[in-house]
Amino acid sequence: MKKKLPTWFSTANIYYPNKLNIEQTSSETSAKYKAELVSGKSLVDVTGGLGIDSYFFSQKIDQIHHCELDQNLSEIASHNFKILGVYNVKTYAQNGLDFIKNSKTTFDWIYIDSIKKG
């Protein structure tokens, strides 16, 4: 955690999910790089996970919609956003593709890291 997610590691009261979720999450280095590629008003993170990408996107985009199928992981991400002082990320415990289909909003960016079947 110290190398992969130093911001989370050095912040008190951060919640962590199981080891597999941590292994699958983006590193801060890669998330910062991805955030440098975007700008605008709104972004949907279809595969939100722990929220590392959403956190860094939130520093470049006005409104982030973080979608995560796993209710527990969505709640952890929501808690951590508050602890980290991020208030322009809305979390949704649902399928991100369904969120987009059912939304009447036009988004500047749709970010999909990977989608697992099964």
- What fraction strand? 15-25%
Listing every helix as H and every strand as E from the N terminus to the C terminus, the arrangement reads HHHEHEHEHE
**CA-CA gap between termini:** 28 Å
E-strand count: 4
Main sheet characteristics: 4 strands, parallel
Side-by-side strand order of the widest sheet: 3-2-1-4
Overall geometry comes to: globular
The helix content is 25-40%
> What is the arithmetic mean of pLDDT?
94
Oligomer: single chain
What's the alpha carbon Rg, rounded to whole Å?
13 Å
The total of helices stands at 6
Structural class: alpha/beta
Provide the low-confidence segments as ranges: none
Main features:
118 residues; alpha/beta
Explain this structure to me?
- The protein is of the alpha/beta class and 118 residues long.
- Helices cover 37% and strands 17% of the residues.
- The protein is built from 6 helices and 4 strands.
- It has helices at 6-9, 19-24, 28-35, 52-57, 71-83, 96-102; strands at residues 40-45, 61-67, 89-92, 109-111.
- It has a 4-stranded parallel beta sheet.
- Helix 5 links the parallel strand 2 and strand 3 (89-92).
- The chain is globular, with a radius of gyration of 13 Å.
- The mean pLDDT is 94.
